[in-house]
Amino acid sequence: MKKFILMIVLIVFFPSFVFAQFVDTKWKVIDHVGETWFSEPEEIIGKHQEFYKGWAEGVFYSCDYAGQSKTYNIYTQKEFLSNKEFSIFHKTKIASSEDNIFVHRITCNGKNGFGRKVLYPFVTQDNSNEAYYLFEGAVFILEH
Q1: Which of 65, 119, 120, 134 is most buried, judged by most C-beta within 10 A?
Q2: Would you say the pTM of this structure is higher than 0.85?
């Protein structure tokens, strides 16, 4: 009887668990919002950023199976947009969607301690094929 009740509870509540939108795919930079400080957006737009398990390669970040890890925090739209760190994102589609927002921190330890890198914030959202990356004062928009 206990197993039956446990199964019912899991079936009812399992769909309500929240998981971050996947990041492991090939993303294409399609646009940007804001003004970059040093880079030329034309040299970035059209390029790719790809992640696959412990490997990454792209215009913003690379890690060749050298201790890559990913973590994320979940925000509601209101929480995300009220955070001063993310104020520039008011200019993106995130501002018009009520879906959960996932802020990913992707790190690479590097080989022998050299080549340590951090990609943050890499932002995805439920029910969207777009991602956003804050780089040099502008938000670059990627899609898969």
Answers
A1: 119
A2: no
